[in-house]
Every structure is written in structure tokens, then in C-alpha cells.
Design goal:
The chain is mainly α. The protein has one domain: Globin-like (Orthogonal Bundle), CATH 1.10.490.10. Helix content is 62%, strand content 0%. It has helices at residues 2-14, 27-41, 53-56, 64-80, 85-96, 99-102.
Amino acid sequence: MSAVVDDAVVNIAADPRINRRFANAEASHLRKNLLDLFCERAGGPCVYKGRDMASAHEGMFIRDDEFDALLEDIALSLDKFKVQPRDKSELLTKLAQMRGAIVGH
């Protein structure tokens, strides 16, 4: 999972649709939170210890298209590392369930 997250961070940093959203984020902190979040959402054993999604994104007014871009960047990494379609779909679905806590706040 760590290789997927590392690659996703590279994709996000290179994506002009959303990279400005992460310009002030410390890369190692972002990586750790994403790794724990992905691992937890995929069924563990990791535990995400970062802030809840709503408070972490409060005042950012993230748009649906930006959220979708993030999921696309993650999907590219899952494909690159040949994550099985079922596992990819399950993870993306679980991440997509956070949309309401992230978008528009």
C-alpha cells in the first residue's frame, strides 16, 4: 500500500487541478495520513489518527471536481500497481463515501 500512496502523492503534486490545495502540506505528514487512511479504509490493520474529514477541510470549500480529481489520481496509482479491480473498486468507494465531509465546507 505504501508504494501506491507514494505514487498517489506524486500524482497529486503534479495535477494542476488540485496541486495548489496541497501546496502548504508537509509531504511526509500527507503521506502518513493518506497511508493510514487508505489502510484503515481497506480493512486495516492501520488506524487513521488524523483529524476527522469535516474539520480537516473546514473553510477550504473544496469542489466536487477537485474531489473527483483526487480520486482519479489515486485510481491511476492503483492501476499502476495492478491492484485487483475488486480491491480498487472497494477502496475508491470507501474514499468516495467521504465526499460529504470534504466537499463544500
